[in-house]
Fold:
Amino acid sequence: MSPVGLARLLEGLPEQVDPDLLVGFETSDDAAVYRLDDERALVLTADIITPPVDDPVLFGRIAAANSLSDVYAMGGRPLAALNLLGFPGDVLGPEVLAGIVAGAREKVLEAGAVLAGGHTTDDEEPKFGLSVTGLVHPERYWRNVGARPGDALVLTKPIGSGVLFNGNLRGWVSAAALAACVESLTTLNRAAAEVLGAFEVHAATDVTGFGLAGHAFEMAGGSGVTLHIDAGAVPVYDEALEMYRRGVSTGVNRANRELVEASTRFAAGLPEEWHHLAVDPQTSGGLLAALPADQAPEAVSALVDAGAAASAVVGRVQPQEGEVNLVFN
Structure:
């Protein structure tokens, strides 16, 4: 479903009145948060993707890291996961199915959680993801709203994976660039979330299907601010910009651009390929966090030391500038 279609669907749902539902679907957040008591709240999420790679084990790892990321984006800790699998059993053998689940299990265990079961259905093409339950303190969870003027924006992974995978289908991406991208996508956001948990995070999200611009747009709109993003500071996967220069794109770039274009401005000198890269859909992308500017350098240093080597300050939060929520400089 397109971002616009999803927004219309959510707008039509009736309001839910439950004081223990701390986060629902009102701001299209990464996960729901439901309070159990004064010390514990559940983080509830589900995600599913189609294969960005041919290798079943790698597919399972990427899909699991992508699903687990929603819990980390809320500041939570994963507890248990269930497989969600669509599979063409009459086309692909059981060894493919076993590889997908094995890859996912590796990442679930790495997250300190358990793989507790799941559901499989016949489908024309493989689709895989997880329903994940996590835990967070009911007064210390993160949302994708709450960014404040004066905050810095920190991003923990590069962008550009969507166009790289499509470029790879044409044989235009080098083995080194693809390998580096896959390594990043199979890396959990666990270390990044744990590091950021020591700082005063005002808002956070993970950058996935709506691209950097789409998720930044949601943060800006929900926070009532304008985000200024320095394109030169954003980490980008090797060869991603080159793919856009050569005319490669993805199936959702247009929908992502329609979501943000009315309230987004690009600096006059920014190359056209950056207009496309801003809405490039990510899988298992990094965390985008808004935190006090004076804490950002220390946070980035700690993130790099913890293994999130691409982490960088990529922008700043300004008071809202009319109808503009997002500016790429």
Remarks:
- The mean pLDDT is 94.
